[in-house]
Amino acid sequence: MINQSNAGVMRRKSDHDNTFLFLTDINSILVSGEDTNGEFCVVHCSVNENDGPPLHVHENEDESFYVLDGELEMIVGADTFLVQSGEYVFAPRGIPHTFKVKSNKARFLITAYPAGFDSFVKELGTPYAEGMEALIEPPTPEFLQRLIQVSKKYNITYPGL
Description:
about 160 residues, 2 helices, oxidoreductase
């Protein structure tokens, strides 16, 4: 739901119009590149224990992660560290990074600048409906091929795939 005042102030929360099942995550696009003239986007992520993306590199955008609750083990470049609620991590473009949820569940915000990650989520994700998380399965070889193909469009690569 978007509420916008006459002064241009925008309010948005997670709902069916902006939420996607993306890999094994539930991602809600709170601020899109369309809202910011491509300057940045903000995505709320809800991820289960032991889930996370493969090691990857964004060539177009920097990313920051702010953990709302839970714990992530993050790899950024040569560094591996545990990130807990209330902590922030910056992952610059061009540097390999990934995360794995170490708690039962984690919720965090990703800000990408410039925007683009939001479009990637929309293109690769499936519009979310309540209860879809019960259908999450490990990615199939066909899905991984699609992931790699769509990622090329957004200049995202996977050193290990």
